[in-house]
Write a structure and sequence with these properties.
There is one protein chain. With about 425 residues, the chain is of the alpha/beta class. It is built from 16 helices and 16 strands. The strands form 4 sheets. Strands 8-5-3-2-1-11 form a 6-stranded parallel beta sheet. It has a 5-stranded mixed β-barrel with strand order 12-13-14-16-15. Strand 13 and strand 14 form a beta hairpin. It is elongated. The N and C termini lie far apart (about 120 Å).
């Protein structure tokens, strides 16, 4: 009986020890629509599981301001404490990541990580004079500075450094961030972090919550298939590839009407690209240059431009590819090796098409009227002055100025409608 009571006490104590739940999210890479959707779905799961905290492991170079603000609204309005943790070593919370850190209830970093460089970047170029930002840039910087200051005041963190990170793109290490009051603690791994969080008092919606995380059960929230798809189609490299597939697919369909497959693939890719570009900011000049470049390379096939159109098309294609997305705005951009690879493939592709086109022009005619004239046939039927002859495997009506007999070899010298003009073949 004593042993049974002892075993039951162990079981109940273990259940009690793991009664608190931590929902863990992993946000890695550029902040965008997919990141915002992932965070929202993770919060929904945390509410269903009645989690003690939401732990977000963060490693980002920055990203879209619109998606960042959506995520901050989710963080500041949730009823569950949110812990932002820059992890692992070598990770960063740059640009948009800095704002997310300031918005969290608890901001933590691992050794060897950094935070900062939160100056907003505009995708479209603006004029500035005497090294001073333009009016548009000044408005964006002032708005960002006021926004991060409000977050610092909300979470009682260092507001002056936050403003400096926005105005002067300052970036600091984890140790300095802790010393300046930018973050709350440093932990080298998740278990150490949970131990340091245990017993900490966090204010959420004007309520003080004592965290019980020492023996918490960690539930990792995995990305669902819809969010995975959103991550894929909002990747600048994927958008770029789909854009070129759309252009080439439609081109093939126009060159070979009835091919169906190239047109279908091109249309589907084109629609996906339009949807993706609707979610992400892009440079219209870059998109137009890509389309103009492809157009010039196509025109080189049909117009004798002595290579000028082709070279101009390649140059426009490369410049458009570089300008299409800005890494400072999105957190990442189109890979340069990918641009070079597609440029070389495009050049090779249009050289091959041009050669085929030239060969088709210079090739000898193998069908039609021109091929009939001079061909040899045989008389198979005679009716007064009209004849029926076998020529090129077909039976034709024919006329002749000379008298012919059945079985005689003939040569076609002309064509009147569907009637051949023939004469005896004396060769």
């Amino acid at each position: 009986m004593t042993k049974l009571i002892f075993l039951l006490s162990i079981i109940f104590s273990s259940l009690f020890a793991t009664s608190s739940i931590v929902v863990q999210l992993d946000i890695k890479g550029a902040i965008g629509p997919a990141s915002s959707a992932y965070l929202k779905n993770g919060f929904d799961m945390a509410i269903r599981k009645k989690a003690q905290i939401v732990l977000v492991k963060l490693d980002t170079p920055g990203g879209l301001s619109s998606s960042m603000r959506e995520m901050i609204q989710e963080i500041t309005n949730t009823k569950i404490p949110v812990v932002m943790y820059v992890y692992p070593e070598g990770a960063r919370a740059a640009s948009a990541g800095t704002y997310l850190m300031y918005a969290s209830n608890v901001a933590a970093m691992a050794q060897g990580t950094n935070i900062g460089a939160a100056t907003p970047i505009n995708l479209l170029p603006t004029r500035s004079t005497a090294n001073k930002p333009s009016t548009h840039e000044a408005k964006a910087i002032n708005d960002a500075a006021a926004y991060i200051q409000s977050l610092a005041e909300l979470r009682d963190r260092n507001a002056s450094w936050a403003i400096d990170a926005v105005r002067n793109a300052k970036s600091i290490s984890a140790k300095k961030a802790l010393r300046l009051g930018v973050i709350d603690l440093i932990a080298n791994n998740t278990q150490e972090l949970l131990q340091k969080l245990d017993g900490r008092i966090v204010q959420v919606s004007d309520k003080n919550i004592v965290l019980n995380t020492k023996n918490a059960l960690i539930i990792s929230y995995q990305v669902d298939w819809k969010t995975k798809l959103l991550y894929i189609i909002t990747n600048p490299n994927i958008i770029y590839i789909l854009l070129l597939i759309a252009l080439y697919g439609i081109f093939f369909e126009l060159m070979n009407p009835g091919g169906v497959l190239p047109g279908v693939i091109g249309a589907i890719c084109g629609i996906i690209v339009l949807y993706s570009l609707n979610l992400l900011p892009f440079n219209y000049a870059g998109l137009l240059l890509i389309m103009l470049g492809v157009g010039f390379m196509i025109a080189e096939i049909f117009v004798s431009g002595f290579g000028v159109l082709g070279i101009g098309g390649v140059v426009a294609f490369i410049f458009g590819s570089v300008l299409l997305f800005d890494a400072n705005t999105l957190g990442n951009s189109i890979s340069i090796p990918l641009i070079i690879a597609f440029a070389l493939v495009s050049i090779s592709f249009f050289i091959i098409i041009a050669r085929m086109f030239i060969r088709s022009r210079s090739a000898k005619v193998v069908s039609g009227v021109e091929d009939l004239i001079g061909s040899i046939g045989q008389v198979i039927d005679v009716h007064e002055t009209n004849y029926r002859v076998m020529c090129q495997g077909e039976i034709w009506n024919a006329i002749s100025q000379e008298k012919l007999t059945v079985g005689e070899s003939i040569k076609v010298v002309g064509l009147n409608g569907l009637t051949l003009d023939i004469k005896p073949n004396k060769e």
